[in-house]
Design brief:
CATH class of chain B: Mainly Alpha
Strand order of the largest sheet of chain A: 2-1-5-3-4
Shape of chain B: elongated
Number of strands of chain B: 0
Largest sheet of chain A: 5 strands, mixed
Order of helices and strands of chain B: HHHHH
Helix content of chain A: 25-40%
CATH topology of chain B: 3 helical TM bundles of succinate and fumarate reductases
Order of helices and strands of chain A: EEHEEHEEEHHHHHHHH
Number of strands of chain A: 7
Shape of chain A: elongated
Largest interface: A-B, 21 and 15 residues
Number of domains of chain A: 2
Radius of gyration of chain A: 20 Å
Number of helices of chain A: 10
Structural class of chain A: alpha+beta
Oligomer: heterodimer
CATH architecture of chain B: Up-down Bundle
Distance between the termini of chain B: 43 Å
Chain lengths: ~240, ~110
């Protein structure tokens, strides 16, 4: 048996979040998400949490497990090596219910960076081709599944509500550095200003939290360099 | 956009410059007359050297800029200060100017009376 301490909060009933303890009959290869299913099916059907793919692709089940932001579906109980597992919602985000947080602010920031390729040149007969090296530049950033673990771990995003956040900045770099995109300085302007890429304090909390082992700080530093170069060339629109 | 990028760059540039001038300052103050007693006359000689005055004044300027700009960056993380960004920048600039004048006055005391 493994003891699960799960943070509960129903804004309609509770004044503040509290922890509830459950004893889970843990299987050898059980993940935290499967343990949560066990709780819902056998112990308490009122527990609310978000999930979808169960394969670390959709990013829905990001939550704080034993003090670290992780994906519940890819976190195996045996890897945690702890008789007591504490599960709480992603910090610094408004709680909708129990382990479900409101990601509205996160996705609004994501929309700000125009998360799609923009190319105003006439389309070629076939595809816009990319060399292996061109693709390698953005390979890591493409793996981002927008789970919000980095955004929630970022202390700057926690205090500065206007800060665009590491996930959106990683994606901004991904499109800016993409050889098929030609938005250029205009794309940089989307992450400029006091609350854009330059606000990052280089704390690496985002890199530590990322379940896909992406280092958002690298992308952010590249954007900062681009912004400084842009400052001494032509002004961005 | 321009101001933020410029201040970010200057924060890095001043960090490198502090490293250089602080090295010269520490070397001159602590290692040139190593083992000898610290005397008023010795300090007076150092503070009459134009090169050392320029080095020490530069250290003061870069240090103040780096420290106060860093403080501005941290304070702007908070909504309260962010709403008063212009006022904050002015207040920190004035504090910097006052401390620079006071410091220069002390450093150049043996030359300008």
């Amino acid at each position: 048996m493994v003891t699960f301490k799960i943070e509960r909060f129903n804004p309609d009933v509770d004044k503040a979040p509290y922890f509830q303890t459950y004893e889970v009959a843990a299987g050898k290869e059980m993940s935290v998400l499967e343990a949560l299913f066990y709780v819902v099916e056998n112990l308490d059907g009122s527990l609310a949490f978000r999930y979808s793919c169960r394969g670390a692709v959709c990013g829905s089940c990001a939550m704080r497990i034993n003090g670290k932001n992780r994906l519940a579906c890819q976190t195996l109980l045996k890897k945690l090596k702890s008789p007591v597992i504490t599960v709480s919602p992603l910090p610094h985000l408004p709680i909708v219910k129990d382990l479900i947080v409101d990601m509205d602010h996160f996705f609004k920031n994501y929309e700000k960076i125009k998360p799609y390729l923009v190319n105003n040149t006439s389309a070629p007969e076939k595809e816009r081709r990319q060399s292996i090296l061109e693709r390698a530049k953005i390979d890591e950033m493409i793996a981002c599944i927008l789970c919000g673990a980095c955004f929630s771990a970022c202390t700057v995003a926690a205090t500065d509500k206007k800060f665009i956040g590491p996930a959106a900045l990683t994606k901004a770099y991904r499109f800016w550095a993409d050889s098929r995109d030609n938005l250029g300085d205009e794309r940089l302007a989307l992450v400029a200003g006091e609350h854009g890429a330059l606000r990052c304090h280089t704390l690496f909390n985002c890199a530590e939290a990322c379940p896909k082992n992406i280092v958002p700080t690298y992308s952010i530093q590249q954007l900062k360099g681009g912004l400084v170069k842009c400052r001494f060339s032509k002004p961005a629109k | 956009m321009k101001k933020a990028a410029l201040l970010w760059l200057l924060q890095r540039v001043t960090a490198v410059l502090i490293f250089i001038v602080l090295g010269v300052h520490v070397y001159r103050v602590h290692y040139v007359e190593l083992g000898q007693p610290i005397l008023f006359a010795g300090i007076a000689i150092r503070l009459k050297s134009l090169l050392m005055l320029v080095i020490d004044s530069s250290l003061l300027f870069f240090g103040l800029f780096h420290g106060l700009n860093g403080l501005r960056t941290v304070l702007l993380d908070y909504d309260f200060f962010d709403r008063q960004e212009k006022l904050l920048s002015w207040v920190l600039s004035i504090i910097g100017i006052i401390f620079f004048i006071l410091g220069v006055k002390g450093l150049w005391a043996f030359i300008i009376r």
